[in-house]
Amino acid sequence: MRRATSFFLLLFILPFAAAAIDLPRDFVKAHSGQFTQGGMVVLHLQNATRVSLNGEALPQIDGRTVLGFGRDSALRHEIAFQRKGKRQNVAIKLKPRQYDIQRIDGLPPAMVTPPDEAWPRIIAQGKLKKKARAIASTQRGFSEGFVWPTRGRITGVYGSQRFYNGEARRPHFGIDIAAPRGTPVTAPAAGTVTLAEPDMYFEGGLVFIDHGLSVTSAYMHLDSLRVKVGDKVKRGDMIATVGSTGRSTGPHLDWRMFWRGARLDPALLAEGNPDQ
User: Fold this and answer.
1) For domain 17-93, is the CATH number 2.60.40?
2) How many CB atoms sit inside 10 A of residue 147's CB?
3) Is pTM beyond 0.85 here?
4) E-strand stretches of 94-160
5) Distance of alpha carbon 80 from its chain centroid, rounded?
6) Of the candidates 174, 177, 180, 170, which has an alpha carbon nearest to the alpha carbon of residue 155?
7) For the chain, which terminus, N or C, has the lower number of CB atoms within 10 Å?
8) Do 245 and 205 touch, CB atoms closer than 8 A?
9) What is the DSSP letter of 243?
């Protein structure tokens, strides 16, 4: 019998306060998002502005650029702006976060540690995912805002550390939304499908969507896929249905977000609650 103990729902119901960051109006018209661990920020730049994060130049589309911060990102960063001979460096401090623990006991050993014969498949599929995430296109979906890709009850949150049968595993980098098998999954923002695989070892049915400037969304444990690689989708287009494929203990959607190598918190991007 499976026994689960979790303490993460309180953090979802009572969100933390975002760190207030003032950006110079000479360089930035407006910005959206949260300067926090797991956060993503979109900057709308003044004309002819160039910007870098920690010394690395950031590409832009239509005067907009994006930057993101991983689960355990350093709290201090520097954004450098340059425009028409003027330069300004802005030191930013991220809002730190605390993450909770989830314990799931009684899982079959194969659900915790893959057998030796599975590793060639796992390694090959890992290369497919890495290649798809490496795409940095000129899609503009990242700048239009995100909505929840499905509706249901939150059963797992970003950043929580999971222990399977008492053994520590990597932190959870997505949002788990429990919903009946067959529930529609829709694109939360416009983009292009870069991966569409029905039978991944860990994720089962898996779809990646490129939203531009290295922002990628991922949808796991899907029952059926309604898109293929190269398909362009708009926000609200159906891409798949909820399932319990791969390494899953029940029907749900695991939604994840990436910016370059950083794993972002999807709950910070979508407004409201998917259970409403």
Assistant:
1) yes
2) 16
3) yes
4) 101-105, 153-156
5) 25
6) 177
7) N
8) yes
9) B
Q: Which tokens sit at 105?
A: 């006991």
Percent pLDDT > 90 in the chain is 78
Q: Residue 39 in contact with residue 31, Cβ under 8 Å?
A: no
Which amino acid, residue 252?
H
Give bridge partners of residue 91 from the DSSP assignment: 78
Which residue in 258, 195, 189, 188 sits closest to 225, CA to CA? Answer: 195
Q: How many residues does the chain have?
A: 276
Torsion of CA 18, 24, 29, 33, to 10 degrees: -20
Bridge-based pairing of strands 76-83 and 50-53 is antiparallel
State the pLDDT at residue 163.
Answer: 76
Pair 245, 252: CB distance under 8 Å: no
pLDDT digits (tens, 9 = 90+) for 130-163: 999 998 899 999 999 999 999 999 999 999 987 7
100-268 is a CATH 2.70.70.10 domain: yes
Please state the domain extents for the chain: 17-93, 100-268
At 95, the amino acid letter reads K
| Predicted local confidence at residue 107, as pLDDT | 65
In the prediction, which pLDDT does 234 show?
97
**Cβ-count burial 185-209 (b if 16+ within 10 Å, e if not):** bbbbbbbbbbbbbeebbbbbbbbbb
